[in-house]
């Protein structure tokens, strides 16, 4: 019996041709066979290499084995075999992949296989013939994520995936904008400015307004402009409520002039890529309709991190007048932690309102962490009201694990000793250092851990940033302190002579060097001589006069009130601290925190010279070339990563949650801080250790702190407390705030009651007798020849005489 479809024309999707992906026509021939049978590889079937499997009409099956095309009718009662790429998925993951039509929100909790689901869904759409590659738009936040998606899709398909609209938001918009640049006054060859060029151009644009750039820094205005762009606001869309009082209300006018100048130069900045393309889609229905025809499916990664303009752009592309909105967004509202760079958690929370009838699939099987860690994290995040709700559960059979350990310590130094000691024991037990991380709320917290790890010889890396003493603001401050200690330090003085800007350029510095050689003397002497002789004029004269006066006052304070007060006074009088207070970049508060931490470290030493020598020794430590290192990073930088063991120090009120964030954002900020704590806990596969200090030194001032509210919010059944007599937040409410002002003192608060933790026998700095043999990780063995409080004078066999804190050596005899 001949097939009733003989001679019927149909279309097959060919996706590995050398040209643009397309559909090809074929005719069913006599070779197909009788109804209910499949054409075999050698039955005369039409040959087409690597044709995508696709269902043509009801009952007509098209498939391939990589060699030949098979055409024939499938019996209605014959079940379809499960493709291998779907067979290893859990039911929720498979549902998220096979639900291809209509809007879909995939709530993917930490460690639930988000990337696998997203890439498999992409490949599934291709392999089932629902679209060809150029009909799928897939957007990510990083180039790394885009590369990983491309590689995984290619692995499932069995060959390179070409012709894809796959990339970051900005790279996709740049590609689109080059096709439609004329709608915003550009040509397709427009240039994209980097950050430095943006600031240079903005300075030029600001000139007609005669704005004092010291009071109103251009980078501050650039931050305002970029925030407007992130919210999808062109100059015409900025309302009075959105306007800024920058430069006495000139911000909007300068923004308009800046945009006009960009267009005149046939350039755009990074924020324009999305802003221009969103405006084109808003105002050009023909362009929007074109992309509606092109993109049959839209895939979005990390939807909880989208800002307003990204949200608007996606909604324009996804919402159609006719046909379904085939947009699938993968995200986790419990991991939305980037509001400071414009992310709006509300975008994911209102997905079902934006796309009525949307399906929501929750991925709750976690394949990373133990049951105890997951339950602790779930109990913590349940205190947030603004969430869609899901509960992670372990996806592994061996996932019971240890409880979350909470350790109370005296202060940040003991915190660092306990963590480094625990890491040393883990390494001794065979645990790779690369599977250990110390995750902190802020970058300034790395210093004591860095110093302690260096002291005991454990290699580490600071992920996403520089080591503490390598940070530019720390190097600046150290240069100020070096000049205060030794005015003849020309290298240090040359670093800070124009920081903050004092109108002293390279030519002026060369003249000072020449004057110094003529005296002869250091640069500081040359400056004083030129000031006395009246050789300096204008702003540079006033600025350098003020700088030298600041050093003279600090020198006097050094002898009367000590090195900590003198250092703070010098940084204040020189204008250095004010420079960072005036800076409105997102990095500025962190830089000020780092400077405060430097002053805190200074307070641990008896003299300024002793501190500077200690820093020199620390900075001289050789870098470890091995990849097996402990990772130090902020909680923001840890998102997406995982480790066997995670230490979470600094869980105290004011530190975490951050007091600055709470002051600026209220309850909304508190919920984001809690999400950040949730992210921290869920980075751990096997062990999560939370630490909090009973007191911290702010400069030279010991101030009480109380445990973070997040500690109390973790269900007690999933927690192991180390130590006793932990103060609750209510009991500690009457204690002085760690941010309270008060006289400098070297004594601890009398209310301190927290005992030493049991798991680690932490000894105080030892009293070391002269003649004792000691060992230092870098300098080897040496003999103590003197002492100045906790600072030892040691004659090392291979390094000569050094001054080293007693906690940084091991006693040998």
From TrEMBL:
Cellular component terms (Gene Ontology): cytosol; DNA helicase complex
PROSITE patterns found in the cross-reference section: UVRD_HELICASE_ATP_BIND, UVRD_HELICASE_CTER
Every UvrD-like helicase C-terminal domain range: 371-640
Binding site for ATP: 108-115
Residues in UvrD-like helicase ATP-binding domain copies: 87-370
Domain of life the protein comes from: Bacteria
EC number: 5.6.2.4
Stated name of the protein: DNA 3'-5' helicase
Originating species: Gluconobacter roseus NBRC 3990
Highest classification ranks of the organism: Bacteria, Pseudomonadati, Pseudomonadota, Alphaproteobacteria, Acetobacterales
The gene coding this protein: pcrA
């Amino acid at each position: 019996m001949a097939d009733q479809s003989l001679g019927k024309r149909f279309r097959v999707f060919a996706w590995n041709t050398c040209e643009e992906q397309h559909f090809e026509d074929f005719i069913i021939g006599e070779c197909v066979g009788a109804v209910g049978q499949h054409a075999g590889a050698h039955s005369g079937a039409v040959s087409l290499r690597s044709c995508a499997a696709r269902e043509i009409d009801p009952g007509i099956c098209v498939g391939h084995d990589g060699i030949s095309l098979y055409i024939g009718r499938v019996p209605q009662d014959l079940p379809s075999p499960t493709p291998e790429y779907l067979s290893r998925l859990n039911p929720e993951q498979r549902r998220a992949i096979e639900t291809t039509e209509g809007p879909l929100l995939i709530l993917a909790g930490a460690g639930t296989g988000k990337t696998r689901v997203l890439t498999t869904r992409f490949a599934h759409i291709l392999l089932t013939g629902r679209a060809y590659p150029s009909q799928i738009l897939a957007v990510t936040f990083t180039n790394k994520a885009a590369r990983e998606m491309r590689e995984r899709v290619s692995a499932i398909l069995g060959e390179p995936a070409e012709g894809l609209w796959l990339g970051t938001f900005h790279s996709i918009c740049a590609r689109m904008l080059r096709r439609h640049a004329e709608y915003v006054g550009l040509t397709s060859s427009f240039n994209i400015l980097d950050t430095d060029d943006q600031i240079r151009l903005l300075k030029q644009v600001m000139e007609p307004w005669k704005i004092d750039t010291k009071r109103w820094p251009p980078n501050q205005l650039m931050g305002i402009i970029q925030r407007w762009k992130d919210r999808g606001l062109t100059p015409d869309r900025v309302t009075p409520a959105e306007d800024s009082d920058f430069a006495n209300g000139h911000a909007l006018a300068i923004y308009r002039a800046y945009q006009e100048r960009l267009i005149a130069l046939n350039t755009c900045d990074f924020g324009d890529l999305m802003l221009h393309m969103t405006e084109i889609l808003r105002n050009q229905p023909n362009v929007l309709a074109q992309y509606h025809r092109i993109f049959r499916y839209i895939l979005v990664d990390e939807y909880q991190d989208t800002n307003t303009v990204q949200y608007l752009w996606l909604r324009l592309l996804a919402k159609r007048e006719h046909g379904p909105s085939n947009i699938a967004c993968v995200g986790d509202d419990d991991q939305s932690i980037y509001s400071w760079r414009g992310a709006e958690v509300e975008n994911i929370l209102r997905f079902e309102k934006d796309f009525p009838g949307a399906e929501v699939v929750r991925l709750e099987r976690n394949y990373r962490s133990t049951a105890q860690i997951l339950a602790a994290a779930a109990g913590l995040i349940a205190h947030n009201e603004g969430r869609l709700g899901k509960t992670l559960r372990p996806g592994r059979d061996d996932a019971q694990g240890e409880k979350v350990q909470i350790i109370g310590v005296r202060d940040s130094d003991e915190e660092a000793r306990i963590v480094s000691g625990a890491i040393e024991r883990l390494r001794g037990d065979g645990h790779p250092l690369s599977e250990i991380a110390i995750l902190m709320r802020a970058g300034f917290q790395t210093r004591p851990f860095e110093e302690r790890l260096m002291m005991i010889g454990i290699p580490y890396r600071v992920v996403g940033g520089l080591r503490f003493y390598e940070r530019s603001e720390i190097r600046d401050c150290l240069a100020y302190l070096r000049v205060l200690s030794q005015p003849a330090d020309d290298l240090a003085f040359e670093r800070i002579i124009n920081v903050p800007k004092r109108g002293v350029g390279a030519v002026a510095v060369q003249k000072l060097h020449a004057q110094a050689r003529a005296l002869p003397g250091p640069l500081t002497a040359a400056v004083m001589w030129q000031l006395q002789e009246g050789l300096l004029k204008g702003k540079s004269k006033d600025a350098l006069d003020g700088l030298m006066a600041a050093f003279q006052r600090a020198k006097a304070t050094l002898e009367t009130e000590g090195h900590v007060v003198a250092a703070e006074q010098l940084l204040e009088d020189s204008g250095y601290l004010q420079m960072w207070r005036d800076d409105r970049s997102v990095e500025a508060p962190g830089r000020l925190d780092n400077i405060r931490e430097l002053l805190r470290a200074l307070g641990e030493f008896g003299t300024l010279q002793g501190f500077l020598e200690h820093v020199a020794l620390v900075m001289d430590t050789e870098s470890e070339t091995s990849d097996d290192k402990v990772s130090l990073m902020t909680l923001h930088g840890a998102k997406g990563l995982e480790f066997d063991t995670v230490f979470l120090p600094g869980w105290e009120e004011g530190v975490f949650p951050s007091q600055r964030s709470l002051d600026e954002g209220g309850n909304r900020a508190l919920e984001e801080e809690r999400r950040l704590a949730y992210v921290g806990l869920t980075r751990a596969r096997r062990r999560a250790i939370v630490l909090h200090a009973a007191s911290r030194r702010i400069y030279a001032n010991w101030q009480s702190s109380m445990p973070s509210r997040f500690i109390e919010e973790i269900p007690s059944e999933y927690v192991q407390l180390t130590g006793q007599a932990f103060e609750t937040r209510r009991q500690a409410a009457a204690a002085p705030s760690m941010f309270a002002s008060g006289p400098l003192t070297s004594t601890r608060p009398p209310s301190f009651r927290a005992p030493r933790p049991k798991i680690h026998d932490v000894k105080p700095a030892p009293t070391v007798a002269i003649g004792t043999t000691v060992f230092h990780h870098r300098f080897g063995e040496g003999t103590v020849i003197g002492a100045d409080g906790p600072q030892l004078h040691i004659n090392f066999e291979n390094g000569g005489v050094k001054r080293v804190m007693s906690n940084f050596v091991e006693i040998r005899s």
